[in-house]
Amino acid sequence: MMKQDVESGTTLESVTAAIQCRDVCRSYGKLRVLNDLNLTVLQGQIYGLLGPSGCGKTTLLKCIVGTLKISRGHITVLGKPPASPGHGVPGRMVGYMPQDLALYNEFTISDTLWFFGRIHGLSGKETQTRMQFLIDFLDLPQKSILIRKLREQKCDLWIWARLRNTALDTLIWQHLVEIVKDGQVSVIITTHYIEEAGQAHVVGLMRNGRLLAEAPPDALMTQHSVTTLEAVFLQLCESSDQTGHKPCTSSPQDLRTEDSQSSEGSRDESRPILSEAATSSTQDSELTPDWKVRAWHITPKWRNITALMIKTMVRMKRLPGFLCFQFLLPVIQISLMCLCIGGDPRGIPVAVVNNETSGDFYSRTLLSFLDNSSIQQVELSHAEAFAGAYDGQYWAIIGFGKNFSSYLMKRILQPRVTRDIVEGGSVHVWLDLTSEFLLWLRSSFHQKQENFTLASRWRFFFEEPIYGTKNTDFTTFVTPGAILSITFYLAVGLTALSFVLERKEGLLDRCCVAGVSCLETMLAHLFSQLFIISVQISLMLLFIFLVFKVPNEGPLVLVIALIVLQGVTGITFGLVISAAIDDEQSANQAALGVFYPNLIISGIIWPVECIPYPLRYLSLVLPQTYASEALRCIMYRGWDLSRMMVWRGFVVTLGWNTFFLVLAMVILKLRT
Ligand SMILES: Nc1ncnc2c1ncn2[C@@H]1O[C@H](COP(=O)(O)OP(=O)(O)OP(=O)(O)O)[C@@H](O)[C@H]1O
User: Fold this and answer.
1) What is the pLDDT of residues 615-664, one digit of tens each?
2) Which domain holds residue 82?
3) What is the reported pLDDT for 498?
4) Which of 60, 93, 390, 432 could form a disulfide with 88 if both were Cys (CB 3.0 to 4.6 A apart)?
5) Same domain for 361 and 500?
6) Quick one: 316 and 436 in the same domain?
7) In which residue ranges is the amino acid composition biased (Polar residues) (predicted)?
């Protein structure tokens, strides 16, 4: 192990240093946050990392625990670079407490301790013991109290404990001293309240991404002839401002006191820098072939996935109203669609101006042919009808001339007629075409006209349909696509937001440091959301088939499988959004932004065949175009996987699922 370190260019110090940073740089875009930073934390030390807000402390800690990559330089933690294969950092060799407490509001105290114990790899018994210790040590309230309740009282666990026990600061320091005493554990505390860290063994004073000094607090104060660390920091800032930006040239080692150096010197170099468990795990990994270590490193661990899934379930259980709403939302949406879309209009007020006073009154016959369940005819004079129509009371006016019946007969019987006869034998219709519904009225009049005039000559005879029923309507066409898009979008919304919120609250970081990988996080989200969408889909299908009597001629198992897979497409797309976007508002906008284009271009509300050509190619590669077509074929034609139009829908859906999952993981990896 030592040989390996020497070969890799690590100095002797790295053997006894728990953490060593050399010339570390890290930028966010053009913003350089860490600037050739050097830092050393020795084994068994409490290290106070001090500096004003924004100087880069959190960034440095994230690099040290391996959740953020450095742009340049070297970091060694417990003898290896963080996040190297087989290393317990991030993982069980490191604990990380972010500034914001990063706790789940819906968890009780015992849920919280159980969850973090589990992802840190503790057994049930170990977790129980640690839980009891912490509850006694921090004098916490009942284990069953919710974190949200503590927060509502403006108390998080820490503040609560502080309020209950004013001597807690002292207690915590005593505890830290206790745990580092045997040299197996090192602690870094960061704060911008500089005096808070006076009890640390060594403090590092940080400014603008550099360390201005690194030494025991007393040594620093003596060297600068001041009585507070704050004053030391001010002096260092002034001298750094005067000398440009070269304050760190006084090497950290120069500032170390005799004591610290002698303690380093007296350290047994052969002594392991890890705890016993860590040592054995490292030794194990050294005996294990590299490929095995790597494979173990990237293979998702069920322990973590289960812990994350249980976490999601517990949170859901604590929000029963929200859970019910989630379950019922697709049922409500599909019911509204079946009830409100595709039906014929009812009771449209239409003014009728009938000037016929004699003859066969064909006008009456024609009026009786109209769809009078949709149209409500109101007989009026010419003036009243137009006044009412301009006033918005009537949506159309139907007018018949004085000699309508006789002129109509002449039109039908005589091969050539005058213009007056054509005019007088026509039904005059004035429409208010400001509503889509009135287009329906216009086409309805056209249809009646054709029936009326052509009836005496020739007609089509529609035989039994090959597929579908004679009374098929728009709702029937739109339902399969609507089922898929409702499932897809609800899954997108759920996943995109829960992930973004977790990241914002620091929970994702916390889990990452505990060794939970991106893949495990993704899979846990996927599996728990699968549970929700399964309930959603079951309820939705019950309503569609039993209440709205939508036909299904094909195998039900294929219907369910395709809908579930489309739900997975929604979940994985949501994961992409949450991996790429940091705040809720933008994530919401991204999810909503794709909603309409996808709905329109996927041929869900109007057939793909009506889409103009360049857009049609785009339509065909979208996740729901072939899938909607496949579902329509299964439900209405009774087809199965032997038909290309069906299996193509499944293949495209599976392809998108894989693509989104991989993309989400790549984005998450690249962004850390
Ligand atoms: N993800 C990010 N993207 C872009 N800039 C970031 C990101 N995280 C931090 N920064 C910027 O990097 C700088 C250092 O931030 P960092 O959080 O490391 O400072 P800090 O010393 O921990 O501050 P504080 O004590 O207030 O948390 C700040 O200017 C911050 O705005």
Assistant:
1) 899 999 999 999 999 999 999 999 999 999 999 999 999 999 999 999 99
2) 2-99+181-287
3) 67
4) 93
5) no
6) no
7) 243-254, 277-286
ipTM over 0.90: yes
Residue with the smallest CA separation from ligand 1 atom 6 is: 28
* Residue pLDDT, tens place only, 168-180: 567 777 888 888 8
- Residue 377, classified by CB atoms within 10 Å of its CB into exposed (0-12), middle (13-18) or buried (19+), is middle
CATH label of the domain that carries residue 204: 3.40.50.300
Q: Assess contact for 666 and 640: CB atoms under 8 A.
A: no
Res 9: pLDDT:
40
Nearest CA to ligand 1 atom 24: 53
Mean of the per-residue pLDDT values for the chain? Answer: 80
pLDDT tier, 367 (very low <50, low <70, confident <90, very high otherwise): confident
For a mutational test of ligand 1's pocket, the pick from 25, 32, 39, 59, i.e. the residue with the most ligand atoms closer than 8 A to its C-beta, is: 59
Strands 396-400 and 348-354: parallel
Same domain for 495 and 361, yes or no, is no
Asked, for residue 137, whether it belongs to a domain, the answer is no
Q: Are residues 603 and 649 in the same domain?
A: yes
* Residue 283 lies inside a defined structural domain of this protein: yes
Q: What is the dihedral of CA 318, 322, 323, 329, to 10 degrees?
A: 180
Residue 301 has what DSSP assignment?
A: P
- On whether both 425 and 481 belong to a single domain, the answer is no
Determine whether the shortest distance from the Cβ of 57 to ligand 1 is under 6 A.
yes
Instruction: Assess whether the previous peptide bond of 90 is cis (omega < 30° from 0).
Output: yes
CA nearest ligand 1 atom 18, residue = 56
Q: Are residues 447 and 484 in the same domain?
A: no
pLDDT tens for 556-576 read 999 999 999 999 999 999 989
The reply to whether 111 falls in a domain is: no
Tens-place pLDDT, residues 238-273: 887 776 554 443 343 433 333 333 333 333 333 322
Q: Is 56 in the pocket of ligand 1 (CB under 6 A)?
A: yes
Between the CA of 58 and the centroid of ligand 1 the distance, in Å, is 7
Give exposure, 82-114, as e/b (b: 16+ Cβ within 10 Å): bbeebbbbbbbbbebeeeebbbbebbbbbbbbb
Q: Give the residue whose CA is nearest to atom 4 of ligand 1.
A: 28
Q: Residue 612 C-alpha to ligand 1 middle, in angstroms?
A: 49
Please give the distance, rounded to the nearest whole angstrom, from the Cα atom of residue 578 to the centre of ligand 1: 20
Contact 509, 98 (CB under 8 A): yes
In a domain, 131, yes or no: no
- Long-range CB contacts (within 8 A, 24+) of 453-462: 453/412, 456/412
Domain count, the chain: 3
The residue whose CA is least distant from atom 1 of ligand 1 is: 28
| Same structural domain, 250 and 333 | no
Distance CA 443, CA 462 (A): 20
Positive/negative CA dihedral, 218, 220, 222, 226: negative
| Strand intervals (E) in 315-442 | 348-354, 375-379, 396-400, 428-431
Length of the chain: 672
Q: Which of 216, 214, 186 is nearest to 200 (CA)?
A: 216
pLDDT number for residue 381: 93
How many angstroms is it from 304 CA to the middle of ligand 1?
29
Q: Distance between CA 479 and CA 635 in Å, rounded?
A: 10
User: What confidence tier does 446 reach under pLDDT thresholds 50, 70, 90?
Assistant: low
Residues 6 or more apart in contact with residue 153 via CB below 8 angstroms: 160
Residue 55 Cβ < 6 Å to ligand 1: yes
Amino acid, res. 112: T
Distances (CA, A) of 239 to 23, 35, 54, 157, 243: 21, 18, 20, 41, 6
